[in-house]
Design goal:
This protein is α/β, with parallel strands linked by helices. It is built from 8 helices and 7 strands, in the order βαβαβαβαβαβαααβ.
């Protein structure tokens, strides 16, 4: 029960890594609040988890929606111990090199991936301070630490998230709020399937041959990292970037 008696908010909790985190955190003793824009998936995950879960329909790219969600969290629980900023979008079929990138797509990706981190942290951190401390886990990507062609909006959003993590760690560490970042890649989620695996031009075997562990990562494997960073086991970890990508970012890959 590594998260026993903790109240944790998870964004993008309706599928993929967020869904896995909801189940895992609850099994480890946490009360979880699931923020998700898709009401059907959010309701389903909350029902599967049962009593430890509360679902609040939230568009994390909209500051008013986020503010309303955290007002409800404060009303219901009056405290907060952990925030997992998991919500992200990778639109491999829409993102592009900056010279070809539709600016509407750029703004949408950045709003979901990076602005949401700011919106949630803005409301969550004061609640954690009032609760005596807490932990924020942000989601970057291998794209934050290496160059990834054809995904300039995604890369920009994840690089900003990584840098913001360090700033928050320095700013709020003295107030007993730790901030860390997990940077996954090649995780078998519905989003990756839609963007890559369902693309006839994507060579899955060639990709896996360049991945040191020679397989896709699983959503729960990333959720385990986030759970550790929120738990008291990581009490002296602050401002860290934990790369969970099977070794992709340390492997030379011709582009």
């Amino acid at each position: 029960m590594r998260l026993q008696n903790k109240l944790c908010v998870i964004t993008g909790a309706g599928s993929g890594i967020g869904e896995a985190a909801g189940h895992l955190f609850a099994r480890e003793g946490a009360q979880v609040v699931l923020l998700e824009i898709d009401e059907a998936s959010g309701t389903r995950v909350a029902a599967e988890i049962g009593a430890p879960a509360t679902f609040i329909a939230t568009d994390v790219s909209n500051p008013d929606s986020v503010a309303a969600a955290f007002q409800e969290i404060h009303k219901q629980f009056g405290r907060l111990d952990g925030l997992y900023n998991n919500a992200s979008v990778f639109w491999g079929k829409h993102d592009a090199a900056v010279t070809e990138l539709d600016l509407d797509i750029y703004h949408r990706i950045v709003a979901i991936n990076q602005h949401s981190v700011v919106y949630c942290a803005k409301h969550a951190i004061p609640m954690m301070i009032n609760s005596g401390g807490g932990a924020v886990v942000n989601t970057a990507s291998s794209a934050a630490v290496i160059g990834v062609p054809g995904s300039d909006a995604y890369t920009a959003s994840k690089g900003a998230t990584l840098s913001l993590t360090r700033s928050l760690a320095v700013e709020y560490g003295p107030k007993k709020v730790r901030t860390n970042c997990v940077a996954p890649a090649a995780i078998a989620t519905p989003m990756v399937r839609e963007s890559n695996l369902d693309d006839p031009n994507f060579d899955e075997q060639a990709f896996l041959d360049k991945t040191p562990v020679r397989r896709w990562g699983q959503p729960e494997e990333v959720a385990q990292v986030a759970m550790f960073l929120i738990s008291d086991e990581s009490a002296y970890v602050n401002g860290a970037i934990v790369v969970a990508d099977g070794g992709i970012t340390i492997t030379p890959i011709a582009v």
